[in-house]
Amino acid sequence: MTELRTTVATALRVLQQLRADPRTVVMLIAIPSVVLTMLYYMFSAVPVPPGQATAFDRVATAVLGIMPFTAMFLVTSIAVLRERSSGTLERVLSTPISKGALMAGYAVAFALFAAVQAAVACALAFGAFDLTIAGSVGAVIGVCVLIGMLGIALGLLCSAFAQTEFQAMQFMPALVFPQLFLCGLFVPRAQLPDWMQYLSDVMPLTFAVQALEQIRDHTAPTALLWRDIAILAGFTVAALALGAATLRRRTA
Question: Where's it mainly located (predicted)?
Fold first, then answer.
């Protein structure tokens, strides 16, 4: 019960801090919708042979998951670095709170934002832009939230190694960009060179995109979808555990 109370207290504290920064809140929720709008009008000019899916229908489902992953990774890592540089994190860790409960509190708070972000983006994609999939919209939102939690977990892990916000930003091209290039969004994974396929096989965003493609193409959950969800959950738990283990109670 003590762990649960401290987790909830940490989540509420982080949510209050985010509430005091409305520009960050608006950016978290609005930017995915702006990106989707740009994609929709960009692909609307591409001619499509009769009976084939539009380019927007092919890529938008994957993009719905990539956006919370990227946004949550960046915002989480920077938010924790700000708390560390201001001394807030060190004061919190000087109390009996466990590092695991602290990490869980951060994860819960940002996961709520990931859920809102995914819901707004999906409402725009499936409503105004008439995105068509075989599976359910609820399944897409659920997987997008899980992908956002993966971004949160990786952001928390990276923040334990960064000393400044600039260093946290450097993890973006190091960890996020390679996954974007190799996840199958730009080039089908089967067409990649063998060594790139091997790298893709150990990158969590690969399984995120694959899970969303399963929902896009199949009316009922498939065994591959459940496997990908389990792998994403495993990556998330492992990253949170490593982040808690490497989090320092005192700032160097």
Answer: membrane
CB–CB of 107/7 below 8 Å? no
Domain boundaries, the chain: 2-42+51-246
- Whole-angstrom Cα distance, residue 242 to residue 238? 6
The DSSP result for 39-76, as a single string, is: HHHHHTTS---TTS--HHHHHHHHHHHHHHHHHHHHHH
CB neighbour burial string for 64-81, b if at least 16 within 10 angstroms, e if fewer: bbbbbbbbbbbbbbbbbb
Q: Mean pLDDT throughout 81-94?
A: 75
pTM across the whole model: 0.90
pLDDT classification of 63: cutoffs 50, 70, 90: very high
**What is the token pair recorded at 106?**
């951060």
Task: Check if the beta carbon of residue 243 is closer than 8 Å to that of residue 157.
Answer: yes
Q: What is the largest CA-CA distance in the chain?
A: 64
Coil, helix or strand at residue 94: coil
Q: Give the type of residue at 211.
A: A
Q: What share of the chain is helix, strand, coil (3-state, %, to 5)?
A: 80, 0, 20
Residues 6+ apart with CB under 8 A from 111: 145, 148, 149, 152
CA angle in degrees (0–180, nearest 5) for 100-28-107: 10
